[in-house]
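Pinned message: reference record for AAA domain-containing protein
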Amino acid sequence: MTARRRRAVISQLEWILEGLDAGSGEWGDDAAERMSPDYASRLAPDQFVSIARDWAQRFAPVTVESVQITGLSAKATVSTGIGSMVVAIATEENEPHRLRSCLVAPLIPAELAPRLPETFRPEDFGSDLPPGRRLTVFAGLPGTGKSTLAERLGRETGTPVFAADWLLGALTPFGGRYWDDLLGIAAEQLTHLAYRQLVLGQSAILDHPVEDPALRGRWASLAAAAGATFSVILCQCEDIALHEARFSARTRGIPGWHETGSWSNVAQRRDAFVPWAGADVLPVDAAMSIEDAMEAVRRFVVRDLQ
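Predicted structure (tokens):
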């Protein structure tokens, strides 16, 4: 990022924060110049200013706790008279880097939000569940082929496939790109969806990197408590050059989600990936043909019937 662009992004964030802290007087007179034409067509500048002044009446004074600048976006965590808030903006790529979006939302402490158990038990399910249900997880880093295999198995078996990237892409219009721990958010969504499927007596396929050992244990307990067969297809790519090539070339067309991302990020995650082994885990290398990989997957997920 150039220093000039960074200063422009910071200037836009500071302008929003000034409005939240004051929200009256001359603030907002330049809103039409600050907002991109597309943003202004969706939210009139005078309406934007009115909303910001309403926020100021509710939240001021605000104190900035942290600021994060990423590319054309910026996010600040602020403390207010009613608790902590997140303020996130996105700006245009070209100068003068006008505002494309702005999100102001409260932060709810994780410990105050109800959620499903970290470890599931049989009493979390009913007693009349049918046999033959399966929870199949396709795990592994981006670019290892897990989504391709998950979708193939879903089509063949008629089992719903829930994928992290599709869920996160759907959240982008609501400011999802600015949230912390996106993979954690996706994991919680997938846990809810899988739990619901199993409660209904149905199977589910999950598509997520599953790098966190705690999440691995949580999903294993979910399947065990429901009396479902738990299968993990661990997609990997031992050849690092092949992995980078696959990652860089993929195009998936997921609405709201990026096509590639950063290979340097994936390379770091390769080094940090915690091994996953066991009777429930089938390693599949991306160097295999899709046909060979699918044949191995088919045999593995029905192993309890053999």
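Pinned by admin. Summary line: The mean pLDDT is 90.
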